[in-house]
C-alpha cells in the first residue's frame, strides 16, 4: 500500500514518539514536538486516513493513536535509516566474547549476555542441537507491555521451550538477513504487543538463530544493525568449531 510523503512522515513521527513513550500519540504532540509544518487539523485528518488504512489504531476513547504491526513493518521496510555500530562499538563487543570463542557453550552464553547488555532487551539463541540460551530477563520488566503478569509469564515460559521458539524462528520469510516478527506473526494473544528481531547463523557443526524479544515498539534503527553484527560475529567464530 502506497502512502503519500506527508502520510509517511506523519506515520514515522507517530512510531518514533510511541517508541519513546509507550503512550498513544495525538496530533497536538506531533505538531508541537516535530515541526511538521502543517496544522494539527491536517495532522488529525491524515491520522484518521492512516487509521482507516490499517496503519494506526485508536486503543480507547482518546485522541491518541498507536501504530499497528503493519505500520511497524512498513516503517522498518520503507522509512527506517539504520544507525550502524561504530568501529569502537564493534571492537568492544568482540572483546567481551573473544576469550570464549573455542568453547561453544561458554561462547553462546556470553554472546547472549552481551547482546542483552547492548540492547537492553531479552536476548535469546536457539541452536540446531536443541539448546536455548537466554539473558536479560530484567530488561523486559522495564517496559509497560510486560506489566501484565500473563504476558510476562508467557514470554518467560517461551524462552525455555526449544520447540516453540524454533517454530517461531522458522516463520520468517524473505531474503533479509535480519527478520522482524510483530504482533500477529507470533500467533499468541499474549504476544500482540511484542516484537522479535533475529538473524540466523550457520557453521559447519552448528547453526541456529539469535535475536531479542521486547515490546513491538523496539528501537529498530538501532537494533537491526546490532543483531546483524552479532549474527555475523557468531557466523565468523562458528566456522572454527
TrEMBL record:
Gene Ontology biological-process annotations: negative regulation of DNA-templated transcription
Keyword Isomerase among record annotations: no
Keywords from the named record: Repressor, Stress response, Transcription, Transcription regulation
Signal peptide (residue range): none
InterPro entries: GAF-like_dom_sf, HrcA, HrcA_C, WH-like_DNA-bd_sf, WH_DNA-bd_sf
Entry superkingdom: Bacteria
Residue ranges constituting the Heat-inducible transcription repressor HrcA C-terminal domain according to the UniProt record: 75-224
GO molecular function: DNA binding
Pfam families hit by this protein: HrcA (PF01628)
Listed Gene3D superfamilies: 3.30.450.40, Winged helix-like DNA-binding domain superfamily/Winged helix DNA-binding domain (1.10.10.10)
SUPFAM superfamilies per record: GAF domain-like (SSF55781), Winged helix' DNA-binding domain (SSF46785)
Repressor listed as a keyword: yes
Function: Negative regulator of class I heat shock genes (grpE-dnaK-dnaJ and groELS operons). Prevents heat-shock induction of these operons.
Family matches, as HAMAP family: HrcA (MF_00081)
Family: Belongs to the HrcA family.
Protein name: Heat-inducible transcription repressor HrcA
Annotated organism of origin: Candidatus Beckwithbacteria bacterium CG23_combo_of_CG06-09_8_20_14_all_47_9
